[in-house]
Amino acid sequence: MTDVAAMDVSGLSIARLGELYAAGDTDPTEVLAAALERIDRLDGALGAFAEVTAEAATAEAAERTAELRRGESRGPLHGVPVAVKELFDVAGAVGDYGSEVLAGRVAGSDAELVRRLRAAGAVIVGVTRSHEFGWGITSQHAGRSSPRNPWNLDRVPGGSSGGSAAAVAWGMAPAAVASDTGGSVRIPATFCGVAGIKPTLGRVSRAGGLALAATLDTPGVVAGRVGDLWPMLAAMSGPHVGDAATLADPLPPAPDPASFGDGLAGVRVGIAPALRGPVPWGEGTTAGFDRTCAALRAAGATLEEVDTPSAEDMLAAFIPLQMAEAYDFHSRQLGLFPQRAGTYGADVRGRLEMASEVSMGEYLESRRRRLEFIWAFDRVFESLDVLLTPISAVGPPTVDDPDTVVIDGERRALREVVMGFTVPQNITGLPTVAVPVGFDADGLPVGMQFTAGRLREDIAVRVAGVVEAVLGAEAPRVPVTPNQGG
Predict the structure, then answer these.
(1) Rama region for 317: left / alpha / beta (φ>0; ψ in -120 to 50; rest)
(2) Which of 160, 161, 164, 205 is catalytic?
């Protein structure tokens, strides 16, 4: 066995951990101890975790270790440390969903996806910070600690799954649960330099998790490598009687990470001018996009321009949908707004106040437009395998001014420079994989996303995995030493 104090878990993939366990070179107890030591040493600066469940995780790791010694394995996630976004209940852990409105709440049981991860052998190490109630793309809080970006602690990690992405990027766990309503897996994935997947809407049960917008919410995964996304997704997916929105369709066969070096001959990749977004791209995004196109061509893929609905039209339909559904959840279902409006953070309170003004007609018109968009993208994927688009026009903003970025000398709202890229996949329910493709001039990661047709997560993962393999050392990895910013 390895000396725990000397063991470095920060760069280990899920597959590599499985190899080490099978060879008897380490065990889940030892790996967890190293992960907890890293969290204890670094998270004071990073702020990724709302709570570290060290005692429960230690007991869980001991059970997984005992099983291995009996020759028993639950599969690829056996003994793998996994973190969970605070929008999903972890029994006995903080369950306030990142809000003072529910301060003191402790989860009484696991969310369904957490139960499935445990059944697959994962060791739950803690609960990661989210934006309050998941309604924001910075993960910053005015009244409690907020996660930082691992590549520069003066920048935000993105949101709302910022804590999960930051924890994975700094090597505290190989993978973490995230979720995506309007980009909340992919935005922190690109800002923190990790891979992420938003699966087809309905793949993963939301039971035991907080809703933001019921017809848009999609649990997902962030991981240090594209190949680590599938074991997590496979464990979490499948129909659930407690969530009627889950799909009965099985996942397609798992893409083999060993095949990522085989290339993409015959794969058709779409470039959509209508999805370029409403603002100019920064140099880092432009260079990252060009680098990705070159990697695709080098792998044998064919790139072609395609017609799609515009990002602006889809964002215009998305906003009333998200707002009306969020307002209904907080007002009618939770009974918290406006009764406890003063306890909400100012940003989320402001969004709920605006949401209260969305009319039934606006909501129904957005539902109608959504069907048009779904139909249009179904037609696109009849002759296409994946779409390539950026995730953000520029890098992350600073923690001192988290909602604003500067493009060509002009201050812009962060939401303007990301959501045109990210909401099309939510309003259509399509699966999307984010992959890091390099760095910008500030030394911050840049990511791209591949969107596939409905139920075809395997294609998006395969293409992203090949791009990751082609780019190799150019793609961001765990920061070697903590960057204190500046």
Answers:
(1) alpha
(2) 160
Task: List the one residue out of 257, 261, 204 whose CA is nearest residue 229.
Answer: 257
pTM: 0.96
205 assigned to active site: no
Q: Taking a C-beta distance cutoff of 8 angstroms, is the pair 12, 80 a contact?
A: no
Q: DSSP labels for 23-57? A: HTS--HHHHHHHHHHHHHHHHHHH--EEEE-HHHH
Cα separation of 421 and 312, whole Å?
A: 9
* Residue 146: active-site member: no
Question: Would you state the pLDDT for residue 5?
Answer: 44
Q: Give the contacts of 325 (CB within 8 A, at least 6 positions apart).
A: 211, 212, 213, 214, 215, 216
**How far apart (Å, rounded) are the C-alpha atoms in residues 8 and 469?**
23
What is the chain's length? 486
CA 80 to chain centre: 18
Pick the closest to residue 391 from 427, 426, 440, 435 (CA basis).
435
Which of 99, 139, 161, 184 is the catalytic position?
Answer: 184
* 85, 130, 139, 198: the active-site residue: 85
Higher pLDDT, 475 or 269: 269
Task: Name the residue among 281, 326, 277 with its Cα closest to residue 424.
Answer: 277
Residue 483 has pLDDT above 80, yes or no: no
- Look up 184 and say whether it is catalytic: yes
Q: By the 8 A CB rule, do 95 and 51 touch?
A: no
